[in-house]
Amino acid sequence: MKHYYKLLLLFSVLTLTSCSTILHRKQQKVNVFSNAENATVTVNDSIYQLPAKIKLLRDKTPVTISYQSANKQLDTIVNGKLSPVFKSMNLTTTYFFGVGYLVDLTNKKRFSYPSNIFFNDNPNAKVYENRAEEYIIRKNITDNDKIEEIRSVFKRNYFSDQRKLAKREEKEFQRFNPKVGKFRMFIAPPTLSLIGFSSKNPNIEQFNNFVGGIGFGFGADYFYKENKFISVEISNRANQFDPFYWSDYDVYAHKLDLSVRKAFKKNRFEYSYGFSFTYTDFEYKLPREKNIIKPLMTFEDDDRIGIKKNYVTLGFSSLANYQISSIMFIGLRYNPSIYSFRSSGSGFDYEHVISIDYRLKF
Prior knowledge:
Shape: elongated
Largest sheet: 8 strands, antiparallel, barrel
CATH architecture of the largest domain: Beta Barrel
CATH class of the largest domain: Mainly Beta
Number of strands: 19
Strand order of the largest sheet: 10-13-14-15-16-17-18-19
Distance between the termini: 62 Å
Helix content: 10-25%
Radius of gyration: 34 Å
Number of domains: 2
Order of helices and strands: HHEEEEEEEHHEEHHEEEEEEEEEE
Number of helices: 6
Strand content: over 45%
């Protein structure tokens, strides 16, 4: 029993107390250094010869650090920010309504300052030179060969990072401004759809709309002119209604669509129109006989008679969307079908798919 109480006490300490209060001290040590000789800083009327480790009282109130050297004199304001310990470690108290956060909000230990503060006394130095000097001074490296190696590594890494950044920026620019002859592949994850079926389908007396969200699409865009492209897409929209055993009837259908559209791009907006060829697979299950009793909460419906039909329709396809990032697009799609080929007889017949469109283009 004693061990039980000990474990309970340990669990309470870990979950019901605040992490900042436990792990942080009232003061934080901050490393301050410079690339100048005989430089000093003044903090709260105390003067420190650099490099130095100074103690700052954790608080939200900004701290002013005055820097002095033979070439420069300036004041730097250092702000206290919420520490990573406060933001992440207290997640362990989420199950207890965030008690750790509530405790820390009453304690200034939740704030922290930068661990290292570097004062650059050479205004003509390159970025990579400043970074190398900061690292050398902070690590107190005195070996000349090691210093030259570090400077070379920082220089090489800097230019490598700049080249990678330039490539990323160019890639982002091209995604917002595709060139002539550019192909873009895309996928369209499932979204909410409104699927309208004609009264020519079995047991639908009049035109009916059903809401569905099952589907997927993929395709490609080809820019044949600046801001003009051809889009080819294959998509599938399906839905199932009243699938449970107490339903009077079930309707299940999916539409497999091939669309070819002419598209225009203006800044982040894209709109397109064209033709669609749709294959529809439709199934209707007749109501269950009244004298058949199924056990409660069973989903079996093998006793129900199903009527299956499939047919092809021709129609139009239109899409308007907005580019919210380099690869993400969101908009509205409207695919009306106007002519159907059915075994019972072909002719003009209206059906549609109206859906929220979300796609990723690469």
